[in-house]
């Protein structure tokens, strides 16, 4: 008879819980974005573009923590939807940047507000304002330690 393995209880593992929170919050974000015909990954790219004057696909990958394959899969859908466009880079005919289409700014603001409201009423409903501030502070501290911000 094979001995039963004694795996640790992941219920109290910070790494496991952060990973699960990433999965769960992606699902919650998807619920809101569905009515805008966007995925969380597409939305993340639009947010990155909204904070720039244009980014190359490689820069988008770095900022959004996505590989080249994923970026090249996401961009065509955003082009088809008319949310982004290409702009040739000055001085390099082979290079281009992706820019957010002007009409997309209002849509992006609406998504940000709806996601914020959804998280406030669903995800953070059991946390006090002080606890929410503490959670945000701790998450930002971890992101800084990981050189994300």
List the helices and strands and how they pair.
Layout: H1 14-33, H2 40-50, H3 57-64, H4 68-80, E1 84-89, E2 92-100, H5 104-123, H6 129-145
Helix pairs in contact: 1-5, 3-4
How far the N terminus sits from the C terminus, by CA atoms, comes to 52 Å
- Main beta-sheet strand count, sense and barrel state: 2 strands, antiparallel
What's the helix count?
6
**Beta-strand proportion:** 5-15%
Mean pLDDT: 93
| Major beta sheet, strand line-up | 1-2
Q: Helical amount among residues, as a percent range? A: 55-70%
Q: Count the strands? A: 2
Radius of gyration: 19 Å
Oligomeric state of this protein: single chain
**Class based on secondary structure composition and strand pairing:** mainly alpha
What overall geometry do the principal axes of the alpha carbons give? globular
Return the string of H and E elements. Answer: HHHHEEHH
Short descriptors:
10% strand, mainly alpha, two-stranded antiparallel sheet, single chain
Structure description:
With 149 residues, the chain is mainly alpha-helical. It is built from 6 helices and 2 strands. Helix 1 packs across helix 5 and helix 3 packs across helix 4.
Task: Summarize the model shown.
The protein has 149 residues and is mostly helical. It has helices at residues 14-33, 40-50, 57-64, 68-80, 104-123, 129-145; strands at 84-89, 92-100.
